[in-house]
Amino acid sequence: MKKFIKNNGTFIALIFLIIILSFLSPSFLSSRNLTNLVRQVTINGIIAVGMTMVILLAGIDLSVGSVVGLSAVTVTLLMQAGFGMWLAILITLVGIGGIIGFFNGFMSAKFDIHPFIITLGVMTIARGLSLVLTQGVSVPVTNSTFASIGSGYIAKLPSLIILVVALALGIWAVFKTSIEIKNGEKVRNKAKLTGGIILSLVGFVSGFLIFIGYQGIPIPVAIFVVIVMIGIYTLQKTRFGRKLYAIGGNEKVAWLSGINILKSKTMVFVITGVLSAASGILLASRLNGASPNLGDGFELDAIASVIIGGTSFMGGVGTITGTVIGAIIIGVINNGMSLLGINTFYQMIVKGFIIILAVMIDVLNRRETA
Amino acid sequence: MAEEILEMKSIIKDFPGVRALDHVNFTLEKGEILALVGENGAGKSTLMKVLSGVWPYPTYEGDIYLDDQLVRFDNTREAEEAGIGIIHQELNLLPDLSVAENIFLDRHPLNKFGGIKWEQLYDNAAKMLSRLNMNIDPRIELGDLTVGKQQMVEIAKALSLDTRILVFDEPTSALTESEINELFTVINELRASGVSIIYISHKMEEIKEIADSVVVLRDGSTIGDKIKIDQVTLDEIITRMVGRDINDLFPNHDFDRGEKTLEVKNISVPDPFNPEKKLVDDVSFSAYKGEILGISGLMGAGRTELVNAIFGVYGKKSEGEVYLNGEKLKIKAPADAINNGIALVTEDRKELGLLLDKNLVMNMTLPSIKKFSSKLAMDNHAERAVTEKYVNELNIKTPGLDVFVEKLSGGNQQKVVIGKWLITDSDVLILDEPTRGIDVGAKTEVYRLMNQLVKQGVTVIMISSELPEIMGMSDRIVVMSEGKKTAELDRSEADQETIMKYATGNKGVE
Ligand SMILES: Nc1ncnc2c1ncn2[C@@H]1O[C@H](COP(=O)(O)OP(=O)(O)OP(=O)(O)O)[C@@H](O)[C@H]1O
Ligand SMILES: [Mg+2]
Number of structural domains, chain A? Predict the structure, then answer.
């Protein structure tokens, strides 16, 4: 039991938070509010998926917020200049997210400079670029297809079908992963099986209540879920994911074991850059335009989500599932405090304390197991 | 009968999945040097950790009596205050601090403003060191000392605490011959001044030389009683340790030299701190299919640097050419060496060999990760299967495949490093001090394995500081001294004196 609480501490904290808020503010649990909350989480969550990989390598990426801003500005300006929507999106993902990420990763890995320094510089450069491109003022875009990416919904019936398929897939995955090998024999881990099924069902029911009860699944949420799935699969199942854990565990050992550090690190920063750009595009779509200061401070929420989600700053330990829970916690706190009418200035103070608390828990846990 | 100062009664220590100590009884007399021996994972380090407060009281069962007083330590600090010092298997110092600071850690002499009285600190440290006849400047950074000197600093630290019982957990595994002699002198002086010593080692000759008596641990229990060292033969001790006779420490292999496989030409490695000097100076040699090539020399002779250069560790900083089966290789990083079929079992398992907080599977398959994955996914079943195979083959003692390797005993960790490189199925296997810290039984297993590999056509290169091992296993021996190759000897012409002569710098005739 003690172990269960320790391993699922953030998840339990989240449940508590939700229960408390639902008492304090009756509108918290409304489908409308929850739909909005989830949609807000996606903007930060998408970045946090990339940030998880960066921190797994014991790195940091401070430039994500500026990349969000520059991407939003770029995609808007490209469309203003008459580029087609998809082309504009593609150029932004590759040209802004990809190239900035490559620069971050390559510079820090090749010349062995801490990514804190490189990305701090890039953060300022990218913000400056946004200001230059927009002359410091907001830029609008009118394109209803583009707007629907960030603010549209999947209709209720297809949403329902998606939820059912997801439930089926979830249970199938639980069945597959709950088999463990003990002494050469396959044994089913019953606790893992029931736990997984309950979790899938809870997910299905809350998805149903939240989304079907309102207007269907928001498109950005669907995009986020797909990104999370790919992220989880990448870290848990692929060779690339394995390499990241190895590099984060001990870079020298990984290198001596034949892993190309430069390649893996660069790749991780490229992924983070592209995801930040995607987040910026979603934001521009939702706001029908961009302002040069968009995304300011987003790096803090992303880093906080990752740390609250149990990824260690020392590298080598962490999961995307944890990060998603961390991102939801941040979202719930923001949303809850707004509902309760707490001034945003105080919200910042509270968030700061929560980050410190999460790191403390990480440190203490490690000391105990050491 | 001398007075008994320590008695440990019926000690039990459980870890998840293993009982590391099972009702162990243990006594120590004043001024006694007691050797504690046993296979890897037998529980030696664990018993000493119980004694020195690393594992505080309720985490073990049983009683510890110091001078007939029951003691229960909550932490290492309390054990130190009671006069128990330990030099751990893995050194425990802070390399960035000065020698003096390491000795007195948080017991600096302070002035009335709470500032450190540096002069007094250095004086005190110098006094401690001179007690050991050590000529070490207490002001220099610890990291700049050799491992042997660092160990002396650990001893000085223990002595600064009025230690009455001093534990050495495999102190000599990283020491040079002369450092070992220095250490033994110090230990003998300590005994003369009434300190009792517990000495853990896998080197049997050492035990015969230094110890008064010996206790054998096997699978967490003592085997027989404590025996006086002169009433027992080494073979008897080994039999107690492993539960069977080992009559052939160095198993023979019919060496049948095949074609030339690895050839290295003019390897040089510059000294990063001194551009005038070279760590490896223009070394060339060849290795053949079906033979074991030994590389001998004193510590610091440049042997590790030589094989590191071959393996691509220094990238462009090292010079020289490497040929495999007549083909020139471009090796810019270890990955290139591995892809060309060269494997290197590194010397320092903790820093260079293992991902300590990862499980056995991940550690063992890391260099051959490509074999166990497609572009899309890892094949978890295949990698578990192969890990299990090598765990059995190397007799790695572990509660399971999913434990973190840091939980394994030192020797078993070493076996994981060896296993990890065996899985790569390389054509050339380079082993840098492969048997460091592993027990006699496991040593012969590793030797057998080397023989088996040689038979399968693998070229094996072994660096070793232990002369018996080099002479017992190699078909040919390259000797190095101060970065240069000083000799290349056939098995038949290699004896202890000849090797030592070349190792200490006699260039002789090439
Ligand atoms: N912190 C730990 N957690 C779990 N198991 C442990 C831990 N430390 C030791 N063990 C287990 O306890 C047993 C005894 O280990 P110990 O380190 O005492 O062996 P040892 O006799 O010192 O071996 P070696 O000669 O290899 O150093 C081993 O099976 C080891 O895996
Ligand atoms: Mg040990």
Answer: 1
Is A121 within a domain? yes
H or E element that contains B14: strand B4-15
Q: What is the pTM of this model?
A: 0.85
Closest CA to ligand 1's atom 24:
B40
Let me know if residue A326 belongs to a domain. yes
Report the pocket of ligand 1 as residue ranges, CB < 6 Å: B 15, 18, 20, 38, 40-46, 89, 397, 407-412, 439
C-alpha span between A320 and A52 (Å, rounded): 7
Contact A43, A110 (CB under 8 A): no
Chain A: closest CA distance from residue B471 (Å): 29
Distance from CA of A253 to the nearest CA of B (A): 5
How many residues can be counted in chain A?
A: 370
Contacting B with CB below 8 Å, chain A residues are 181, 184, 237-239, 242-243, 245-246, 249-250, 252-260, 316-317
Q: Which residue puts its alpha carbon closest to atom 3 of ligand 1?
A: B407
Break chain B into its structural domains and give their ranges: 4-248, 259-504
In tens digits, chain A (370 residues) has pLDDT values of 556 656 667 788 888 888 998 898 888 888 889 988 998 899 999 999 999 999 999 999 999 999 999 999 999 999 999 999 999 999 999 999 999 999 999 999 999 999 999 999 999 999 999 999 999 899 998 888 999 998 889 988 888 998 999 899 888 988 887 777 665 567 777 877 888 888 888 888 888 888 888 888 999 999 999 999 999 999 999 999 999 999 999 999 999 999 999 999 999 999 999 999 999 999 999 999 999 999 998 999 999 999 989 898 889 999 999 999 999 999 998 898 888 888 888 888 888 888 788 778 767 766 655 4
User: Which of B363, B369, B375, B405 is most worth mutating to test chain A (most A CB atoms within 10 A of its CB)?
Assistant: B369
Nearest-CA residue of chain A relative to B337? A258
**What superfamily would CATH give domain B259-504?**
P-loop containing nucleotide triphosphate hydrolases (3.40.50.300)
- The CATH code of the domain that includes A327 is 1.10.3470
Question: In terms of CATH architecture, what is B4-248?
Answer: 3-Layer(aba) Sandwich (3.40)
CB A59 within 8 A of CB A46: no
Asked whether A34 and A211 are in contact (CB, 8 A), the reply is no
Note whether B355 contacts A184, CB cutoff 8 Å.
Answer: no
| Look-up of token digits 């590191």 | B308
Going by the DSSP 8-state scheme, the letter that residue B42 receives in this structure is S
Question: Within a domain: residue A186?
Answer: no
Structure tokens at B203: 């080197």
Atom number, ligand 1, closest to the C-alpha of residue B48: 18
Q: Are residues B13 and B19 in contact, defined by beta-carbon separation less than 8 angstroms?
A: yes
The answer to the question of residue A93 being in a domain is yes
Are residues A245 and B344, on separate chains, in Cβ contact within 8 Å?
no
Complex ipTM: 0.87
* B230 CA → ligand 2 middle, Å: 25
